[in-house]
## 1
Amino acid sequence: MRYPISIFRMKAVVVAAAVSVFSLGGASYAAEPTVIELTQVGCQFIESENGVNHGFKTTQASDCEAINDRTGEKRLKNAKVLRLRPGKYVFKVTNENVPYPLGFWVRGDGVLNRARLPSVSGGGLTMGKSRNYEIDLKPGEYVYSCPLNPTPDYKLVVSG
């Protein structure tokens, strides 16, 4: 089943209805992670910018660095914060049309949070391919981005 995260216009796929560990016939089963789908195009994640594809043309990372120098601050002001509850998540990231390999990185926002909160990252995401990044999010403030297709650091807040 698919459920929209309306304030973020992001698709979340609930893999299991369970929200906590439960017992069945003496065996324990953990809740399955929630899948958050993100689509990368040149210099941005579409869902992170309210579903708007800015149509940035890029052939290499330095193109995005220049684009972000001009537009990144304004785009971040308009981006909505992704708000999630603590728990297990899979970020399914797709490289829609970027002609070079991409990656994904979720980490704590700032030095202290980066040291105390979980992180997940990886690269090798070629054009037209998707990759899953699993993480057990704890309460706190995070950012996520792609360092290889330099995107802004989008805000992620985990609470509840």
Note: Residues 1-28 have pLDDT under 50 and may be disordered.
## 2
Amino acid sequence: MVALAAVLLAAAAARAQSPGDPDQDIINPDRPGTADGSGVVGAGRFQIEAGLQQDRRSDGSSRSRTDYVPALLRLGVGGNLELRVESNTYTSTRARDSAQGPTRSEDIQPVSVGFKYRFAEATDSQRPSMAVIVRLFPRSGTGNYKTRRATGDLRIAADWDFAPQWSLNPNLGVGAYEGDGGRLYTAALFAATLNYNPSKVVNVFIDIGGQYPETRNGRGSAVVDGGIAYIVGRDVQLDFSVGARVAGVTPARVFWAAGISKRF
């Protein structure tokens, strides 16, 4: 996996063109970070956003490490509409418990299909661009991640360039998710990313994301993370981020992620 990622990074960088004109059209992925932006890839464009993420959890005498490969495929079918397929794909979990000893499991996480539709364009610093993002999760997944019910969520995403080199990406939404026993529950969703762009190709960010409730009849959860993204040429972005849980029990205690996005 690491060798394949290195080959892909090298190939993408070799094929990328120099930034040239700072006002040219450049890639604008939804990764990294918790909140998604309102931008779409454009008619006839195809974009892959993938990476490697590691979550670490602890509870009393038990410890676990989960590695997975988040992936988002985006296909532009119009100037303001794109189709999306998203999943955390292959997942490997290694756990150690004082009573049971070490265990390991390998699973495939559920896949979602959906779309993003941008319904408002930014006109100036007072009016952000806005989009709606819809995901539907059919019954899918294996092992510990196998779902018995179809679920989904809807979010409103915005991009607000409120100051030179600074922007904010707030997300608000609602989801219907599967709880214990296969019963559905409704949750409110929130995320916001604060971006600082010292140049057209560098983005430093910090963000927060939350869900209430995190489980059926549970409390709320929240995570914070921060990182950096760098655009190579016009069509490739590399990113790295780290984060931690600040509320709840379902998110990882700490996590890190690294990824690559490529536009075709």
Note: The longest strand covers residues 184-199.
## 3
Amino acid sequence: MKILEEEIDLREETRELQQTKAAIKFKDYSQLAVKLARTQRGLAVRTQDVVTKIAELPKGVSRFAKELRLLTAVVEVMDEAHSILARPETGPEAIAAETEAIELLLQSRRIQPKGGGGGGNSPGGGGTGTTDKTALALMGRGIDADAEIEARQISQSTGSAGVAFPSEFRDGLDKYFNRLENRRK
């Protein structure tokens, strides 16, 4: 979701402005904070538009009830963040509100990793996804935002002697390396 990405960018800009607050004039700080507040308001309006469009879909309200609840909550939190930024305030309170919006957006776009396909008594397989990941999951953006991380076995790459040589070769190799070392001395 584009809105999610932009909310993350806004939170970063808010953090940066908070870090420079002491180094710039209050008038400049205030203007920049109000600019961030306008950006936040724009994101809230866009999110509300998404809610409206989903609700207008055939059976949209019933089919997407959970998403509509989450996105409506996102709009409320974004409005709160807008008010905080407009004061102007870019400290922990503003960042917390923006983070909450991000968390809710993440929940609303969560895929059901084991769903889809199939038939029988439970067509689509019924998702078994969870919403235990937080906004920290977005620390780095990759190519596929819906990719799943899978645990895999990793073998040790150092400290392994590998295949043992037959004893007749080991004796010859030991003599060779001993002579090589003696030449250096």
Note: Residues 2-111 form one domain.
## 4
Amino acid sequence: MFSSDHHDIWDEHQWESHINEMTQRHEHLRDLIESGPGKGPRWLSHIKDFPTKLDDVDAFIEEELLLEESYFPFEDDEDAEGDDVFFNDGDEDDEGLDGDEDGWDPAEDGDADERPMDEDDYLTNDEDDLESLFEDIFEEESDDESMYDYASLENIAIYTDARDLAADLLIFNDSKPHYLEHPGFIFLVSETLLVSTKLAAAYSMGFDVEVLGANIAYCKKALDKTNHTLTHLQSLKDNPLSSSDYYELHRRLFELRNNIAVHIQETRDFFLRQL
């Protein structure tokens, strides 16, 4: 555990141990959801419910994330105090905004240009002013800027690659439905979907130094799933997969595995630089 001025920061190993513990604690919930006579994987039931295979994948990922247990080993007191600033009773401040005796008085508070700004003052059609405003914001934050700032999940290549691969596997339901009659192929799809889920869980933890260990821990789980999926894929060569499908899936999984490994190392380096 690393010490900082404000918090005791967990590393990836502590987060990994905690996540494993919470996963085991809630395993009965997963068993309850997925058990039952004649029940197959949940993603299989979504195929007919969603217009596209990507929608199917997204629905599965969303359900899986609901089963994940996220926990922060500290509370951010500053955020809690900040809530009091924005969510107050509305008594004193509201009276001032209404312009009564507690409000702005030009005789006491100066010229109109110095009065408190109301809602209309924030509205502007001047694009140059808006551009200047955002330039100022980014200049102020440039010292803390990193490869992870302002990123969205859809801009993280390893996630989109894993998500697209899972969706392409589901397309075989239309082009080669006999694949989905094979238990080994169904397992392949399930494991590939879980790779996307773990990467989404990693992103959901964020990139602040206090939770980067959890981010890395989830990425490691995605890497582990990818390795297992590659091994399992070999058992499907020639049955049921055709040679062309097998080599294409192997190429994509292999590249995905390598890219996740690189991403983990880059995130570790980023984590260490923040300490």
Note: The radius of gyration is 25 Å.
